[in-house]
Design a protein that fits this description.
Length: 236
């Protein structure tokens, strides 16, 4: 503990004054005083820094506790954050231009990036999760390997997309998508447009590999949404 922090500022200046008065009062006192003031300012900003780290970085164990069957909770995008990309498919406004450009550049190489799904409301996710569960006669735990429970899907944010190869529709939502030119192109170039694969093989969240599912991390707002997921990847 720095003892200086316990002495009020005015008192400190007074004691310096009495010390320097005997030798060379004036500039000397000014410099010492200035030095202490700077130390104070430095200490203060250090404290602010420590505090902000505490505020934003919750321990990994907490994030783990918040997850449900390997999936993390995500808020639903508001209507005014969304934009219609293609018939029936809404995405977050912030990813619109990036995906369009990526699609355009890929098309110049003969690669067809098809947007299969974007934003999903929590209600729709609920239907998908429970419907598929009963159709496939799976338990919630089994189902959670391939689909997020309602309230726990990256799609709710509007920042997650499912991509298919327009020239190979049979591979949509299938592991075989990995073999298509669209996936190969994405793997090589998507990060230029700030899209990352959410569930790579053997991901730390324990979700089944989904080569078609990408999320956008190109804005502060987007990055914040996936902070917890990235922490699991980096620190677990
Ligand atoms: Zn998806």
């Amino acid at each position: 503990m720095n003892y200086q922090d316990d002495i009020p500022l005015a008192k400190r200046f007074r004691s310096i004054k009495t010390l320097t008065i005997k030798s060379s009062f004036g500039l000397g006192a000014l410099f010492v005083g200035l030095g202490i003031s700077l130390t104070l300012i430095a200490n203060k900003s250090f404290l602010v820094k420590v505090k902000s780290i505490d505020d934003s970085n919750t321990p990994t164990s907490e994030n783990k506790n918040k997850s449900l069957l390997g999936h993390l909770p995500y808020p639903e995008a508001s209507k005014d954050e969304l934009i219609l990309f293609s018939p029936g498919i809404y995405v977050h406004k912030e990813i619109y231009e990036n995906f369009k450009e990526m699609q355009f550049i890929a098309a110049q190489r003969g690669v067809s990036l098809q947007l299969l799904s974007g934003y999903r409301s929590i209600d729709l996710q609920r239907d998908i999760f429970y419907e598929n569960k009963s159709i496939r006669n799976q338990t919630a735990v089994e189902r959670s390997n391939v689909s997020a429970p309602p309230g726990y899907s990256e799609h709710s944010t509007g920042y997650a997309i499912d991509v298919g190869d327009g020239n190979y529709p049979d591979t949509h939502f299938e592991a075989e998508f990995e073999q298509t030119p669209a996936f190969k192109w994405m793997k090589r170039f998507a990060n230029k447009y700030h899209f990352v694969l959410s569930f790579p093989p053997n991901n730390k969240q324990g979700v089944t590999y989904e080569p078609w599912h990408w999320r956008f991390e190109g804005t502060v707002n987007a990055l914040r949404k996936f902070e917890a997921a990235n922490k699991i990847t980096k620190f677990k």
